[in-house]
Design goal:
Blueprint (H helix, E strand, L loop, with lengths): L4 E6 L3 H12 L4 E4 L15 E2 L9 H25 L10 E5 L2 H15 L10 E4 H7 L9 E5 L3 E2 L2 H14 L3 E3 L4 E7 L2 E6 L2 E10 L5 H4 L10 E10 L13 E3 L5 E3 L14 H14 L8 E11 L6 E4 L6 E5 L7 H14 L12 H8 L1
Parallel strand pairs: 1-2, 1-11, 2-8, 11-17
Antiparallel strand pairs: 3-7, 4-6, 5-6, 9-10, 10-11, 12-14, 12-15, 13-14, 16-17
Helix pairs in contact: 1-5, 1-8, 2-5, 2-8
This protein binds flavin-adenine dinucleotide.
């Protein structure tokens, strides 16, 4: 009997839906299986940066991979407009990382210099901007801002629209989305995979594990490892204010709709995704130091969500040696990497070969670090 699906993608968050869309664009028959609203979903709680600056210290290829995604983002945004009719509000004017003391600025500059000087790192230019020059580009900054670093590759978008667009574009390309289909077991039989879900069984020639924190228990079933852990992040949203900010900052941005997002904390809190007023107060107070006039803006919403973190914070992309055709894909910057996932990684998965240039992202590196 002919199989109904070429590929089953497990997890309908940003990572799974970007891959599923990329695979459906290639004409593959794809089933996208998602646990449903009960699951932890970083994709619905993130900050919306499409960000390069500062990434890759400790794993040089990650810097290049991130840049590749960011450079291809306009192409993805255009495709999503075409296939889904959704504008994801992508803006890539470059971004600033602000520092509140001279010592902080010096440390930041040193860190970026070390980052781009790593062997094998695809170098990019960054500027260290003093307070005077910064005030001309970011009117309204407070007296405590000492300066910033700037990278012209950085940007931001509306992440909920990106999420919706990827799903709609996937469906428009003939994909089959199965919500409330938590995957319980995966088995490889006779060269194909049988995936048992809460909503029945599916057979597919390939299977991609893109279930965020749900990858950890699934991966060993197909001879893979995904030792991901949750890391809590909180975001504060202020009411709409007049347009005052033409650039995203690493911890504050004005959306295309005029609201202001302040983010995002980093806490090891296990699977606890509740809010803490102390953390929210710290975020708010830093934002007021940066732009004192925000003191008068009302808070509209706050939320906490769980990041999906590998042991060293870098992506894991790997095909199983034990069960070829099974892949694991996980990362902690699923907004930024959406273009690379849809346009670059998906074709490699379809070809059954991730390529030597992505070998730095297998879980092997974690063994080496452990032994070191
Ligand atoms: C506060 C915060 C701020 C962030 N800011 C940014 C940012 O500015 N820029 C950026 O690039 N990234 C950012 N991120 C990270 C980004 O949101 C994540 O990298 C991305 O959402 C991860 O997507 P995912 O699909 O891997 O995981 P998730 O969004 O968690 O989705 C996993 C999906 O898998 C499904 N699932 C789980 N188990 C199973 C199972 N057994 N069977 C079927 N389905 C299953 C779930 O239903 C869920 O839909 C941020 C994250 C947080 C928390």
């Amino acid at each position: 009997m002919a199989r109904e699906h070429d590929i089953a993608v497990i997890g309908g968050g940003l990572v799974g839906s970007a891959l599923a869309y990329g695979l459906a664009r290639l004409g593959r028959r794809v089933a996208l299986l998602d646990e449903g609203d009960v699951a932890y979903r970083a994709s619905r709680g993130n900050f919306g940066l499409v960000w390069v600056q500062g990434k890759g210290l400790g794993l040089a290829p990650y810097g290049g991979w991130t840049q590749r995604s960011v450079r291809r983002f306009p192409e993805l945004a255009a495709l999503l407009c075409e296939d889904a009719g959704v504008d994801v509000a992508l803006e890539q004017p470059g971004g600033f990382h602000l520092c509140l003391s001279a010592a902080e600025l010096a440390h930041r500059a040193d860190q970026l210099a070390r980052l781009v000087a790593q062997p094998g790192f695809e170098r990019y230019a960054f500027d260290v901007v003093d307070r005077g020059a910064l005030a001309r580009r970011l009117p309204g900054i407070g007296p405590q801002v000492a300066g910033a670093t700037y990278c012209r590759l950085d940007g931001h978008l509306n992440p909920l629209r990106l999420f919706r667009a990827l799903h709609a574009a996937f469906l428009a390309r003939g994909g089959s989305y199965r919500p409330n289909a938590k995957v319980e077991a995966i088995a490889r039989e006779g060269g194909a995979f049988t995936v048992r879900t809460a909503a029945g069984r599916i057979e597919a020639g390939q299977v991609v594990l893109a279930a965020g924190l749900g990858n950890a228990p699934l991966a060993p079933q197909v001879g893979l490892r995904a030792a991901v852990r949750p890391q809590r992040g909180m975001v504060v949203v202020l009411e709409r204010v007049r347009r005052f900010l033409d650039y995203p900052l690493s911890t504050l941005r004005q959306t295309d709709e005029g609201t202001v997002l302040i983010g995002d904390s980093q806490e090891e809190a296990g699977f606890d995704d509740t809010l803490s007023t102390a953390v929210l107060a710290t975020l708010a107070s830093r934002a007021v130091q940066v732009f004192p006039f925000l003191r008068n803006a009302r808070v509209n919403r706050t939320w906490a969500a769980l990041r999906v973190m590998s042991p060293d914070g870098f992506p894991i992309y790997e095909q199983s040696a034990l069960a070829p055709g099974a892949f694991v894909v996980t990362c902690h910057s699923g907004v930024t990497l959406a273009a690379a996932h849809a346009l670059d990684l998906a074709p490699r998965i379809a070809d059954g070969d991730l390529g030597a240039d992505l070998s730095a992202f297998t879980s092997e590196r974690l063994n080496v670090q452990k032994a070191a």
